[in-house]
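Budget justification aside, the reviewers requested a transparent look at the raw inputs and outputs of the sequence design task funded under Objective 1. We therefore reproduce one unedited record. The lines immediately below are the structure tokens for a 860-residue chain.
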């Protein structure tokens, strides 16, 4: 849209202004009363104060915004103007379109081609369009500007309550517009900022826009810093509300805080560093010095500020000028050694670092000289050079191997002892590397150790082997010490080596002997122990296994923890009453599971680590004691067998006569047959008992046949019914079906079942139940379990059951259960008895099942 704009003298003056320096141009535009803005690539780069006043927005809000947020795109000619000239621009102002004359010029803003636009007066009062339709378009444009504006914009009523909020406000706060509307702004900011914000709101209500900063709390509670512009909303000349235009300035505030922190740190460094710092301009006039400068050179800051640098002798000025020129062209200089003069005239050897100081445009305006007194270092270097000859004399006459290597590992010096110990000396001209002097198996490790010393600047100790020309291995122990250069880098490494071949051979022999004896102890079949102060210092694996522990469990524990409580006193007493250095006795050890283990202990008094100790062996003799017990039982059985044979032989002869005469009396039929029958029955019973004695005495002829164990039990139970009824005892039997047969002598098994059932009945004089359970298992065995509710057997008597003449009954002989054990043993079965006092007894009889051979199987 082009208007009739005069482009006379004023325009030509504007072009002349364009040719000025950019800095001068911006200063002129900043003081101009005409609104001016600069744009390029669709972005606003600059607005002057008159422009911000015209639009009611801050420069911070407008900078970097797209051009269409300021100039209505469909009416803008600023972008398309190919030549300098006048245009008519449509400008947004408080959401309204305003048509203004403009001067549109090319402009170089901070080195970037841009356009400068200077606005004149309105072309038409009230905007581009009039009427209801025009106002509607303007309203839509205004709403579009607010909705798409990157700044957070809200309208407030005169009390500060939010009435509208654009999307940017929602994004910044985290609340939706619905949540924001009706909320008082002061409720969303930090209490410390409320008073200042109230003043800004009151100023805006009086018609004066106000700027302020505050801490704003987002929906999730996060605090952010925002910069706010409050603008009055004027309708028909009356202030009806307030525009809130906010921008998140958290990053800027943080940057400012970090800048202040950095400034404080730099000031602290400048003030507290031990190096003397002097800042001087390009005319060599002192601008600033730190306390270390005053202390080192004797001048106070007041005496040197504004004066030429007082430290240089007259003949050294050219040297410092050359150094400054080098800094200007190439940058900082580090470690320049110079001689400065103190206030008292003394000369100080210093190491100087000279650095440039630039202004905001990158121009070097001053120099910073940081100096350090190195007089002592130079003196020490001189002393070192003087002492080097002394140390070289010592090195040349030492028997140890002394070598110096550079940082790459090439030898630069070797002491004469190389030829004496190794039989040869290295050729220094060939720069032999360190790993070439060692055994092939040690080269990689030595190279890694050497590189580590160079990298870490730390000394190291190591061992290596050297193979002589006669193919002999020499063991060497070495210390490597890095040598630091002036640049604080490792210049080389001094390695001092000593021949330890004899020591290594002795250590190898000792280690071999130790491993041999350790193997004997560790693999021993008996337990080995070492005790000090009644604590276990060592046990071998067998000793720990014997008691159910690991070796780690037993180390440094009291020996009393592993002795059966009843034997602790006896053991302690015997050790204290020992004669000589040896001890040997039997006691019970305490297993981890709580049971007692019979052991035999041998021990010898010794000294270990300068303290008294007992070392010895311990053996588990539980099985040996069981074997001895079995031998004693076997002797008893042998005696019982011999006694039974004699008794049976002596009783059978008179029994035969008695039975014969009773049979004769019965044959005469004198009316006493019932008594005679009783006598014959008792005589048969006595004869049966005598036969049982013979079972004990010698093996009997046994008639084994496959039988059903359930059938045998059903035959036995009726025989005991009468005695069971008399004692108010019920016998119940539960058996699995389809059980395999057993290979047995039926009469002998009946005798076993009768004996056990009779014992069960007799143990329940007041009545009860006897349960019989028969079942099979997957291992080809049958189990007969007989459970009574009798008085039970004491735990200490259970191990003696089955011994000859041992019984728990008042009139028992102890032979019945012994015979049962013997019969089940002949049937390759077992009897196990479990009992608790007053809770009954359980007898488990296990017998092998019988499986007939398969007729279809092939047999050789």
């Amino acid at each position: 849209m082009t208007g009739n704009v005069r482009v006379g003298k004023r325009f030509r003056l504007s072009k002349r202004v364009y040719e000025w320096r950019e800095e001068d141009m911006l200063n002129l535009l900043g003081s101009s009363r005409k609104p001016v803005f600069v744009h390029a690539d669709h972005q606003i780069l600059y607005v002057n104060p008159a422009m911000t006043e015209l639009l009611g927005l801050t420069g911070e809000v407008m900078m970097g915004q797209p051009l269409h947020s300021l100039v209505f795109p469909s009416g803008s000619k600023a972008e398309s103007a190919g030549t300098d000239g006048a245009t008519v621009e449509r400008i947004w102002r408080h959401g309204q379109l305003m048509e203004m004359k403009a001067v549109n010029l090319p402009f170089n803003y901070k080195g970037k081609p841009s356009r400068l636009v200077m606005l004149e007066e309105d072309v038409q009062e009230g905007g581009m369009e009039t009427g209801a339709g025009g106002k509607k378009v303007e309203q839509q444009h205004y709403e579009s500007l607010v909705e798409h504006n990157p700044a957070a914009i809200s309208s407030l009523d005169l009390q500060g309550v939010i009435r509208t909020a654009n999307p940017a406000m929602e994004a910044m706060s985290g609340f939706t517009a619905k949540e924001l509307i009706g909320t008082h702004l002061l409720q969303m900011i930090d209490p410390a900022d409320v008073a200042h914000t109230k003043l800004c709101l009151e100023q805006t209500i009086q018609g004066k826009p106000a700027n302020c900063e505050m801490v704003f709390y987002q929906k999730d509670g996060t605090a952010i810093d925002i910069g706010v512009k409050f603008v009055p909303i004027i309708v028909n000349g009356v202030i009806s509300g307030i525009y809130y235009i906010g921008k998140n300035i958290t990053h800027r505030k943080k940057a400012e805080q970090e800048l202040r922190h950095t400034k404080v740190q730099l000031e602290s460094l400048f003030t507290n560093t031990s190096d003397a710092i002097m800042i001087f301009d390009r005319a060599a006039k002192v601008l600033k010095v730190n306390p270390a400068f005053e202390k080192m050179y004797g001048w106070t800051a007041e005496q040197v500020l504004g004066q030429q640098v007082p430290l240089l002798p007259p003949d050294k000025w050219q040297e410092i000028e050359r150094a400054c020129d080098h800094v200007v062209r190439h940058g900082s200089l580090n470690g320049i050694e110079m001689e400065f003069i103190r206030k008292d005239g003394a000369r100080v050897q210093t190491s100087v670092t000279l650095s440039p100081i630039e202004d905001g445009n990158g121009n070097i305006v001053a120099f910073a000289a940081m100096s350090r007194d190195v007089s002592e270092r130079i003196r020490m270097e001189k002393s070192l050079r003087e002492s080097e000859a002394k140390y070289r004399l010592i090195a040349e006459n030492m028997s140890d191997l002394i070598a110096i290597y550079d940082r790459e590992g090439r030898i630069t010096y070797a002491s004469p002892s190389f030829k004496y110990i190794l039989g040869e000396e290295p050729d220094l001209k060939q720069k032999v590397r360190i790993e070439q002097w060692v055994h092939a198996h040690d080269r990689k490790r030595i190279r890694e150790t050497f590189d580590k010393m160079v990298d870490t600047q730390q000394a190291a100790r190591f061992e290596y082997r050297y193979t002589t020309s006669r193919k002999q291995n020499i063991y060497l122990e070495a210390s490597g010490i890095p040598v630091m250069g002036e640049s604080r880098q490792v210049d080389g490494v001094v390695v001092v080596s000593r021949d330890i071949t004899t020591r290594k051979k002795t250590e190898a022999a000792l280690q071999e002997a130790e491993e041999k004896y350790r193997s004997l102890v560790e693999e021993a079949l008996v337990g080995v122990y070492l005790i000090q102060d009644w604590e276990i210092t060592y046990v071998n694996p067998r000793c720990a296994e014997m008691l159910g522990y690991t070796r780690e469990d037993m180390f440094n524990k009291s020996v009393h923890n592993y002795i059966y409580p009843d034997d602790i006193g006896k053991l302690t007493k015997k050790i204290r009453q020992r004669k000589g250095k040896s001890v040997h006795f039997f006691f019970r050890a305490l297993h981890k599971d709580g049971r007692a283990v019979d052991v035999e202990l041998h021990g010898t008094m010794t000294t270990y680590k300068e303290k008294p100790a007992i070392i010895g062996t311990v053996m588990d003799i539980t099985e040996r004691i069981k074997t001895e017990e079995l031998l004693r039982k076997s002797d008893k059985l042998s005696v019982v067998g011999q006694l039974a044979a004699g008794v049976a032989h002596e009783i059978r002869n008179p029994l035969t006569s008695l039975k014969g005469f009773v049979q004769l009396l019965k044959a005469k039929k004198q009316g006493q047959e019932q008594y005679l029958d009783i006598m014959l029955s008792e005589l048969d019973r006595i004869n049966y008992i005598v036969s049982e004695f013979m079972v004990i005495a010698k093996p009997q002829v046994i008639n084994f046949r496959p039988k059903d164990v359930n059938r045998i039990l059903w035959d036995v139970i009726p025989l005991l019914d009468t005695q069971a009824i008399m004692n108010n005892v019920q016998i119940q039997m539960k058996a699995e079906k389809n059980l395999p047969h057993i290979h047995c002598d039926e009469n002998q098994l009946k005798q076993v079942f009768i004996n056990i059932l009779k014992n069960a009945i007799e143990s329940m004089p007041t009545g009860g139940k006897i349960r019989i359970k028969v079942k099979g298992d997957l291992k080809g065995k049958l189990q007969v379990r007989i459970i009574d509710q009798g008085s039970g057997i004491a735990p200490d008597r259970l191990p003696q059951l089955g011994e000859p003449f041992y019984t728990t009954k008042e009139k028992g002989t102890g032979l019945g259960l012994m015979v049962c054990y013997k019969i089940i043993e002949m049937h390759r079965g077992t009897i196990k008895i479990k009992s608790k006092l007053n809770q009954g007894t359980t007898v488990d009889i296990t017998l092998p099942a019988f499986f007939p051979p398969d007729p279809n199987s092939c047999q050789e």
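Residues 599 and 690 are 44 Å apart (CA to CA). Residues 1-20, 74-83, 123-132 have pLDDT under 50 and may be disordered. Computational costs for records of this kind are itemized in the attached budget.
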